[in-house]
Amino acid sequence: TSDAHAGLVAAIGATLPAAAWQRCRTHYAANLMAATPKPSWPWVRTLLHSIYDQPDAESVVAQYDRVLDALTDKLPAVAEHLDTARTDLLAFTAFPKQIWRQIWSNNPQERLNREVRRRTDVVGIFPDRASIIRLVGAVLAEQHDEWIEGRRYLGLEVLTRARAALTSTEEPAKQQTTNTPALTT
């Protein structure tokens, strides 16, 4: 899950070729709001949220189509914007319903990024690269420990079911290798 930054999407595809990518619904809502006339935004936002409030994947797709139909007559540019994003926004429906809330937005990642930024801002200037790596590593380890000890962000049983569902619906992919250029500093 991420915003639709072209470089980020390309990097995800190059680094993790078999990974599913989901456009963050929060970031998309901001993009859609920019394309929507201000007086119409509350109505459009309600329609957009109605898509995510559906109980199953089939209902999500059906509601998406109903929303497009409702918008096409009154706000054709907004309908086109939404139609263009269909695949990116509905990728979460290929996964079990239990993990939809975790994968349709990248808000947890952004919270973690803000915490890293807050901790590095407190220090201000780092004497060397290793010191910032230690600090960021400690923040990430702390987050990992919270997820392990407390609530599990994505339970192993749900991930196993998700993997089984995805592999049973896909045809076996041919093994392919690509030469990826090494990162240099």
In short:
The protein is mainly α and 185 residues long.
Report on this model:
GO terms for molecular function: DNA binding; transposase activity. The structure is a single chain. The chain is an all-alpha fold and 185 residues long. It has two domains: 6-94, no CATH class; 107-167, no CATH class. The chain contains ten helices and no strands. The protein is globular and about 60 Å long.
Rg over alpha carbons:
20 Å
Major sheet: none
Structure annotation, total helices = 10
- The separation of the N and C termini measures 28 Å
Overall mean pLDDT stands at 81
Strand content: under 5%
Number of domains: 2
Basic shape: globular
The tally of strands reads 0
* Helix content estimate: 55-70%
Identify low-pLDDT runs: 172-185
The SS-based structural class is mainly alpha
Order of helices and strands: HHHHHHHHHH
Comma- or semicolon-separated keywords:
185 residues; mainly alpha; 10 helices; disordered C terminus
SSE inventory with pairings:
Blueprint: H1 6-15, H2 25-35, H3 41-52, H4 57-74, H5 76-84, H6 86-89, H7 100-103, H8 107-123, H9 129-149, H10 156-169
Helix pairs in contact: 3-4, 4-5, 8-9
Family: Belongs to the transposase mutator family.
Function: Required for the transposition of the insertion element.
Organism: Mycobacterium tuberculosis
